[in-house]
Amino acid sequence: MNWSSHRLHTGDEFRAVTRGGVRSARSHVVVHLSLLTQEGDAPRVGFVVSKRIGNAVVRNRVTRRLREIVRSRFETLPPGSGIVLRALPGIDEQPFAELEADVVGALGAATRKLERRTRTVS
């Protein structure tokens, strides 16, 4: 999978997702989800791992773990959506299985919220 075509690149894209969509949080991760384009387009994903998480090595490890969790479930993400995963302090100490459960749970909750919102608007 080529991540460059499935990433959020600019600050404006990150802002559009975080301000215009829904949010769901778990103990160490917050998921922001928004519809950016038409249904046929692939989802686009961005990661926010601040310096509060740790040094560059730790932040990169956290990003790689989050990317792998999203990659393994990429086909289940809503088409045309923008997704931002924001890491919270303590995520670097969380076992992979727990982190995966948190991300999957937060993605599911955000998807349900977005579906409810789009149904009531339509």
Please give a quick description of this structure.
This is Ribonuclease P protein component. Consists of a catalytic RNA component (M1 or rnpB) and a protein subunit. With 122 residues, the chain is an alpha+beta fold.
Write the layout of secondary structure elements.
Elements: H1 11-20, E1 22-25, E2 29-35, E3 44-48, H2 56-72, E4 81-87, H3 96-121
Parallel strand pairs: 3-4
Antiparallel strand pairs: 1-2, 2-4
CATH class: Alpha Beta
Strand content: 15-25%
Global outline? globular
Q: SSE order, as H and E?
A: HEEEHEH
CATH topology: Ribosomal Protein S5, domain 2
Q: Quick check: average pLDDT? A: 91
Given as residue ranges, the uncertain stretches (5+ residues, pLDDT < 50) are none
The total of beta strands comes to 4
Number of helices: 3
Major β-sheet annotation: 4 strands, mixed
| Order of adjacent strands in the largest pleated sheet | 1-2-4-3
Number of separate domains:
1
The radius of gyration computed from the alpha-carbon positions, rounded to a whole number of angstroms, is: 14 Å
Helix percent reads 40-55%
Gap between N and C termini:
33 Å
Question: Would you tell me the structural class of the helices and strands?
Answer: alpha+beta
Please state the second-level CATH architecture: 2-Layer Sandwich
Family: Belongs to the RnpA family.
Enzyme class: hydrolase
Organism: Brachybacterium alimentarium
EC number: 3.1.26.5
